[in-house]
């Protein structure tokens, strides 16, 4: 009798898998299956979220391999980004060295978990042989007019010394360091994702294998609004004010106008007037607020009159012009017509500043107070008013998206250099392809002061113009790291290609990713950017599909004591400690068993113990029976008990197969496996147990455990005398005949309460079933003093006896 020595078993099989490159993908003619988990940032230490994410992916990969697919299951590193740079500033460590060491450490930890990656395809976005192609793609975007430079006010964190995206500003503070965010007027690179807004929106409906909530988040993020642009005359001002409204039907209810405080006309309108000073104060005040705050319905509306009046083009009415915090400069036209009777924000503002409120639509949705448009429905008025404005040459129907172009310049060191050289004569010129990659210089200083660290390199900034050869200057910013992750799934397919980012043929063959798995925190940006890249690369002729990920699973968080595990809460459970104490198979089994993948998972020490005990129980069962099952025995006539256990074996096989291939209900699959193991324990104690059935049962148990607990399954497979790897065998199919029951269990109720169970022939008639229930000794004893009112039989399930 041997014990379950997980440490020895796991080490042994990890070595075997590594040596024979068990999970290397070679092109063959099996159907392909591409399973991908979002790659990690190499922080150096794995956490339970990683264990969960990657265990889910590993089950899918191993299962699909056993189902006969050629499975591509790669792993790599999202290796550029701030932490490396912050570590450099703090500890004087070099970001490259820091990152490479972290990658090494994390890879070791992944190997301890026994994930089935094809490590030959590993990519790290910070290595020149990867970012060369990121730069190449940037240039392709540039040549297509999809990368452009623009001056604008951007969120700036003075402590992180970089631009922040709107999502990174929380209550006016930097999400990372809590510093007060300011605005800076900078010239920056943008990618024109707005050109793809409509397609990105339309194609969401094609993503059948995506969670509805993620699709909705993407839709809202793109935020399409149909409305109209209308020009208003301004008194004593030579330009017209263009506004965007989704409700042109309400135009007769306009009682004031609002410009975003940063709107370019504001300065011009108040110049030299009594309003100038107050306006300047107000502008600098709102600049500290994020767009998210400013568009919140909770926002306390604030603003001021700026001394000008606009003329309503339909009514001819003169209305005052305000600036206010709730109007954003870069949405629509940065100016609105305010209709307090029908818009909540305008209503709050009008109440606060005592402005008129005029209703133009009554409760039945019919126009009022609108002159020639009275008595129309608001929908009719919408069309008629837009038509009239159009005839007047001052309005037209327009579509607006909330989606902004993607600001990609970062004033940071540890990122992909932007491959552009500025020439006084030729302007912004892309670096020639043969000169890629533009390598990150090493002689930089991390002072944490001033502009991009790349400016501190002696050599880097100067470069000849690729067009005319004259002295030029390199762009000193690096790219947003979301760019690196917008195409990595393509590089895995052809990771060593040094002629192009990837071969079109191979990518067309392997894509789409059949199953993508990752955290819901990436539900918007990463997925949207990857979809955008895919569409642009398609239009560049580099691939032939529209969407990168056909199925998406967003796994829930790992909680402890009801809260997300985090350093600050001090509730972290270290995966390495769990592996050390119980082994990787137990760690994997627990995260798969404790909750369905999409739900949050509550950490439980007893749960881990339970999984560990279960593996031990399987191990003992196999170990005890190994000699029994190694002999070849003939199948005799099956007894009742034989049939029962075969039913249990094959129905479990069926359930596990369906649970994995359907909605990835690993938890229910594992719990039915646990029941089967219990049944086997009982069965083996029978005097007339059938060795062939024991053998059949053990083989199936080991096989269907293999994707979940791959090390111990491999070991047990060997223990029962099998040659070769369990992970190379075919997933078994269940025996239909074993699922036909000779006998069924029928529940007997009295007045709806369960009072007993009967084993009856499977093909019994309803009448016989009811009769036998009434004749049963126990039941007849219970009802002998009562009067039977009714007997209700549900075939093959239950008999309910209603008595008085
Ligand atoms: C008049 C009106 C009347 C409006 C009404 C709404 C209701 P969505 O759906 O988000 O596109 N708006 C336009 N540009 C804005 C900006 N830069 N900052 C803040 N608000 C802005 O919303 C479009 C509506 O939001 C527009 O339609 C405009 O107010 C406002 F009963 O115009 B509406
Ligand atoms: Zn030049």
UniProtKB/TrEMBL annotation:
Q: Does the keyword Membrane apply?
A: no
Against InterPro entries, the record matches this protein to:
aa-tRNA-synth_I_CS (IPR001412), aa-tRNA-synth_Ia (IPR002300), Leu-tRNA-ligase (IPR002302), Leu_tRNA-synth_edit (IPR025709), M/V/L/I-tRNA-synth_anticd-bd (IPR013155), Methionyl/Leucyl_tRNA_Synth (IPR015413), Rossmann-like_a/b/a_fold (IPR014729), tRNAsynth_Ia_anticodon-bd (IPR009080)
Superkingdom assignment: Bacteria
Q: Gene3D superfamilies, from UniProt?
A: 3.10.20.590, HUPs, Isoleucyl-tRNA Synthetase, Domain 1, Valyl/Leucyl/Isoleucyl-tRNA synthetase, editing domain
Renumbered to this chain, motif 'KMSKS' region spans 564-568
Q: Which UniProt keywords apply?
A: Aminoacyl-tRNA synthetase, ATP-binding, Cytoplasm, Ligase, Nucleotide-binding, Protein biosynthesis
Which part of the chain is the Methionyl/Leucyl tRNA synthetase domain?
35-179
User: Which EC number(s) does the record attach to this protein?
Assistant: 6.1.1.4
Q: Which chemical reaction does it catalyze? A: tRNA(Leu) + L-leucine + ATP = L-leucyl-tRNA(Leu) + AMP + diphosphate
Which GO biological process annotations does it have? leucyl-tRNA aminoacylation
Q: Coiled-coil region(s) at which residues?
A: none
Residues bound to ATP are 567
Annotated Methionyl/Valyl/Leucyl/Isoleucyl-tRNA synthetase anticodon-binding domain ranges read: 642-765
Q: Where in the cell is it found?
A: Cytoplasm
Annotated Aminoacyl-tRNA synthetase class Ia domain residues: 403-604
| Residue span of motif 'HIGH' region | 40-50
Which cellular components does GO assign to this protein? cytosol
Under the heading PROSITE patterns, the entry gives: AA_TRNA_LIGASE_I
Leucyl-tRNA synthetase editing domain: which residues?
219-389
| EC category name | ligase
Read off the NCBIfam families from this record.
Answer: leuS_bact
Report the family membership: Belongs to the class-I aminoacyl-tRNA synthetase family.
* Designated name of the protein: Leucine--tRNA ligase
Its lineage reads:
Bacteria, Bacillati, Bacillota, Clostridia, Peptostreptococcales
The primary gene name is leuS
């Amino acid at each position: 009798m041997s014990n379950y020595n997980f440490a020895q078993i796991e080490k042994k099989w990890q070595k075997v898998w590594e040596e024979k490159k068990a999970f290397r993908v070679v092109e063959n003619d099996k159907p392909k299956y591409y399973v991908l988990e979002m790659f990690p940032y190499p922080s150096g230490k794995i956490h339970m979220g990683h264990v969960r994410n990657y265990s889910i992916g590993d089950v899918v990969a191993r299962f699909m391999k056993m189902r006969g697919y050629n499975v591509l299951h790669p792993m790599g590193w999202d290796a550029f980004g701030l932490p490396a740079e912050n570590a450099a500033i703090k500890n004087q460590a070099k970001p490259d060295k820091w990152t490479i060491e972290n990658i090494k450490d994390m890879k070791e930890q992944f190997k301890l978990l026994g994930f089935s990656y094809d490590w030959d395809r590993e990519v790290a976005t910070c290595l020149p042989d990867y970012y060369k192609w990121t730069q190449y793609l940037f240039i392709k975007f540039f040549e297509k007019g999809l990368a452009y430079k623009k001056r604008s006010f951007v969120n700036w964190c003075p402590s992180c010394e970089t631009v922040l995206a709107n999502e990174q500003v929380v209550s006016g503070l930097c999400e990372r360091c809590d510093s007060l965010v300011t605005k800076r007027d900078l010239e920056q690179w943008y990618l024109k994702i707005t050109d793809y807004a409509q397609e990105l929106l339309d194609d969401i409906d094609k993503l059948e294998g995506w969670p509805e909530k993620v699709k909705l988040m993407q839709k809202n993020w793109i935020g399409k609004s149909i409305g109209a642009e209308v020009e208003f005359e301004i008194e004593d001002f030579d330009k017209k004010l263009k506004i965007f409204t989704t409700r042109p039907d309400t135009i007769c209810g306009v009682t004031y106008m609002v410009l975003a405080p940063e709107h370019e006309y504001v300065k011009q309108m108040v110049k030299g007037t009594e309003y100038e000073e107050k306006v300047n104060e107000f502008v600098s005040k709102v600049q500290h607020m994020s767009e998210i705050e400013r568009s919140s319905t909770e926002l306390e509306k604030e603003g001021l009159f700026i001394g000008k009046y606009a003329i309503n083009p339909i009514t001819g009415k003169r209305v005052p012009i305000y600036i206010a915090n709730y109007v954003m400069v870069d949405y629509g036209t940065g100016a609105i017509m305010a209709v307090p009777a029908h818009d909540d924000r305008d209503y709050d503002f009008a109440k606060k500043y005592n402005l008129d409120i005029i209703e133009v639509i009554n409760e039945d949705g019919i126009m009022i107070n609108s002159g020639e448009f009275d008595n129309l429905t608001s929908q009719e008025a919408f069309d008629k008013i837009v038509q009239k404005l159009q005839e007047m040459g001052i309005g037209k129907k327009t579509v607006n998206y909330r989606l902004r172009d993607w600001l990609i310049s970062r004033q940071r060191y540890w990122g992909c250099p932007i491959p552009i050289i500025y020439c006084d004569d030729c302007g912004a010129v892309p670096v020639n392809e043969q000169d890629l990659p533009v390598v990150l210089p090493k002689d930089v200083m991390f002072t944490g002061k001033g502009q991009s660290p790349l400016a501190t390199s002696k050599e880097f900034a100067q470069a000849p113009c690729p067009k005319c050869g004259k002295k030029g200057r390199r762009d000193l910013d690096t790219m947003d790291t979301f760019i690196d992750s917008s195409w990595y799934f393509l590089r895995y397919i052809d990771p060593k290609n040094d002629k192009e980012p990837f071969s079109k043929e191979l990518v067309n063959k392997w894509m789409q990713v059949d199953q993508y798995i990752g955290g819901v925190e990436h539900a918007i940006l990463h997925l949207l950017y990857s979809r955008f890249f895919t569409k642009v690369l398609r239009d560049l002729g580099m691939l032939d599909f529209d969407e990168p990920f056909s199925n998406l699973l967003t796994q829930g968080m790992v909680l402890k004591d009801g809260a997300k595990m985090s350093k600050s809460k001090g509730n972290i459970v270290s995966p390495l400690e769990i592996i050390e104490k119980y082994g990787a198979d137990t760690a994997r089994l627990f995260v798969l068993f404790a909750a369905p993948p999409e739900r949050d998972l509550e950490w439980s020490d007893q749960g881990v113990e339970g999984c560990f005990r279960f593996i031990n129980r399987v191990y003992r069962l196999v170990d005890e029976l190994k000699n029994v099952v190694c002999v070849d025995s003939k199948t005799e006539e099956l007894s009742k008990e034989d049939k029962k256990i075969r039913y249990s074996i094959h129905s479990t096989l069926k359930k596990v197969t369906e649970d994995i291939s359907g909605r990835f209900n690993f938890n229910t699959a594992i719990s039915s496996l646990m029941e089967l193991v219990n049944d086997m324990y009982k069965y083996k104690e029978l005097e007339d147990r059938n060795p062939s059935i024991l053998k059949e049962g053990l083989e199936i148990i080991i096989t269907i455990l293999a994707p979940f607990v791959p090390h111990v399954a491999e070991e047990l497979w060997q223990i029962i005398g099998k040659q070769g790897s369990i992970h190379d065998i075919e997933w078994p199919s269940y025996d239909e005949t074993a699922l036909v029951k000779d006998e069924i269990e029928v529940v007997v109720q009295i007045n709806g309460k369960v009072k007993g169970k009967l084993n009856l022939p499977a093909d019994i008639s309803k009448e016989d079933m009811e009769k036998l229930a009434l004749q049963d000794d126990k039941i007849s004893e219970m009802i002998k003093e009562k009067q039977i009112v009714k007997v209700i039989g549900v075939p093959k399930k239950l008999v309910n006896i209603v008595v008085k």
